[in-house]
Specification:
261 residues, eight-stranded parallel beta barrel, two-stranded antiparallel sheet
Length: 261
């Protein structure tokens, strides 16, 4: 069983428990459920840097990244830095995140917020909307084509942008459909945890231009972004570089300044 299978198995149990505690009707009554979302797609298309900065306390591959920061400061810092969007990990067991992190980020900034989660049920999409997300992540490796269609179409009905994450050509061909907005290429091999930008390079020409291309994992240098921009990438998800520092907002500000110089 690789780590993704393990996470997915645990997630099914967790979601079933949550459904028993909070019915969908309650989610739909959230103040945030009716808000107009902020488009990450538009933000990326109008940007020359394309930085999506993440809030992440730990990960299965790196263990603890940073437990000392509060989401409020991180979100404010990222917004001041001029990032295009913020990704918020809401998985508790493996990443130390929660839906409350999403709620805090929403109250702290006007950035497009991505709920970074292992979505295996429509219920989680309703949760995302009711806790203030603008974008959801779907991971091709853990979903069937029918599930990707079902989840992405529901998201569009709710006004959410959809980012689909792929790791290889097979996942790409399985997943391409009009209800997606962005295709994210994860440069990390989930079986070995090795990271290679070659994955983004190889898959770039297979992704139709209707979709905004995003590269994820292993983006920690200006050089990596400069290498990938000519391949048509408009978005770069930076998960650990900023969070490893004492002030992610300041690190993001400096990074963006260097990228533009």
């Amino acid at each position: 069983m690789n780590i993704l299978d393990k996470i997915t198995t645990d997630k099914r149990i967790e979601v079933n428990l949550r459904k028993q505690l909070i019915p969908t009707k309650q989610l739909e009554q959230s103040v945030l459920f009716e808000r107009n979302t902020i488009s990450l797609v538009k933000s990326l298309r109008n940007s020359n840097t394309g930085i999506i900065a993440e809030h992440k306390r730990r990960s299965p591959s790196k263990q603890v990244i940073n437990h000392n920061l509060n989401v409020f400061d991180v979100a404010r810092g990222y917004e001041n830095a001029g990032v295009c969007g913020m990704s918020v990990l809401t998985d508790g067991k493996y990443f130390g995140g929660s839906l409350d992190d999403l709620l805090t980020a929403r109250s702290s900034c006007n950035l497009p917020l991505l709920r970074k989660e292992f979505i295996i049920d429509e219920y989680q999409i309703l949760e995302a909307k009711s806790y203030g997300a603008d974008v959801i992540l779907l991971i091709a490796a853990i979903l069937t084509r029918d599930e990707i269609k079902q989840f992405s179409e529901l998201s569009k009905q709710l006004g959410l942008d959809v980012l689909l994450e792929i790791h290889n050509e097979e996942e790409l061909h399985k997943s391409i459909m009009p209800s997606l907005d962005m295709l994210g290429v994860n440069n990390r091999n989930l079986k070995t945890f090795e990271v290679s930008l070659e994955t983004s390079k190889q898959l770039s020409e297979l992704i139709p231009n209707d979709f905004v291309k995003i590269s994820e994992s292993g983006i920690s240098s200006i050089e990596a972004i400069k290498i990938l921009q000519p391949f048509g990438y408009k978005g770069f998800l930076i998960g650990e570089s900023f969070m490893k520092t004492n002030n992610p907002g300041e690190s993001a500000t400096q990074f963006i300044k260097d990228l533009q110089s």
